[in-house]
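Lab notebook, design round three. We kept the backbone fixed and only want residue identities now. Task for the bench partner: fill in a sequence for the structure below.
Input structure tokens:
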């Protein structure tokens, strides 16, 4: 009898623990859902006040999959609706996430890279989005650089501004290497400082100097590294649902919220290693050329770039 009573007591104890655990999980889920919707509401209010439209809600076909190395690759396309440039990708990046290794990497593709666009001949790579949306961009990257992409995310630059202002009330600490003001709507002085959302957008978009897009791509990667490093830590995790909600009205993606939270949680963990970056084309692997109807382009050595790119992916 005593043994039966002991078993019943242990069983009740485990049932109590299980119920407490389920209530705890439910509370976290409810809090996350509430914060996510608060972020969405906040951004929609901002959109209505500014008479902006955010990123189009057009549903795109995207036949993506994991790459041959088992990694998840996300096509990141930046656009600016205020300038009516939605049709062309102003920024082209690939975020690489390898769950088994726990690594995050980032590749930038110069938008003037002269590539073969399937079914359309040779053009600057940023025209692939204009000609066939993210799916044609996916096919173009696969054909030219032999890498598969599983997801796409199109981000309106205003969403970047809102994310920075929400996540960093005191601004992002970053080193501005030179004075910047031409065609970015802000004036940035050189030196280590904290930039708000509008200033950070100017920092990552500036290209009115001798190195043009090359400098801009470098600053974009620098900005993402700084944001990731300064958001890393356990204190960031509870903020993620609202931050994702803030950005969501400015984003068109085939990723669901659960996927985003899962990857973001690990990315902002204090245990994450350094974010490695790569650029296509690499140094000494391209030449400037002028193509009728295209203007100035980058003619790149595909063999040299692909070898370096795939080495970066697997190291």
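Proposed sequence:
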């Amino acid at each position: 009898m005593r043994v039966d009573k002991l078993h019943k007591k242990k069983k009740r104890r485990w049932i109590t623990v299980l119920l407490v655990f389920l209530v705890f999980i439910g509370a976290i889920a409810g809090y996350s859902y509430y914060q996510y919707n608060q972020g969405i509401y906040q951004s929609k209010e901002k959109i209505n006040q500014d008479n902006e439209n955010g990123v189009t809600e057009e549903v795109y076909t995207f036949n993506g999959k994991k790459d041959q190395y088992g990694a998840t690759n996300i096509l990141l396309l930046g656009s600016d609706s205020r300038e009516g440039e939605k049709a062309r990708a102003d920024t082209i990046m690939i975020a690489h996430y390898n769950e088994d290794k726990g690594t995050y990497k980032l590749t930038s593709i110069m938008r003037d890279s002269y590539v073969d666009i399937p079914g359309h001949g040779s053009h600057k790579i940023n025209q692939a989005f204009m000609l066939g949306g993210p799916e044609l961009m996916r096919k173009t990257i696969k054909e030219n650089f032999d890498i598969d992409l599983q997801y796409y995310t199109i981000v309106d630059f205003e969403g970047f501004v809102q994310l920075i202002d929400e996540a960093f009330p005191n601004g992002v600490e970053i080193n501005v290497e030179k004075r910047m003001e031409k065609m970015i709507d802000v004036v940035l002085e050189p030196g280590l400082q904290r930039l708000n959302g509008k200033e950070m957008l100017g920092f990552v978009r500036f290209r009115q100097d001798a190195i043009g897009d090359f400098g801009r791509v470098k600053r974009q990667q620098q900005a993402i590294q700084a944001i990731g490093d300064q958001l890393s830590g356990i204190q960031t995790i509870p903020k993620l649902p609202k931050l994702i909600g803030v950005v969501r009205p400015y984003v068109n993606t085939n990723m669901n919220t659960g996927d985003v939270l899962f990857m973001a949680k690990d990315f902002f963990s204090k245990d994450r290693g350094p974010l490695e970056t790569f650029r296509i084309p690499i140094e000494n692997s391209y030449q400037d050329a002028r193509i009728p109807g295209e203007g100035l382009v980058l003619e790149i050595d595909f063999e040299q770039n692909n070898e370096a790119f795939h080495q970066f992916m697997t190291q």
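Keep this in mind before ordering anything: The CA atoms of residues 40 and 245 lie 4 Å apart.
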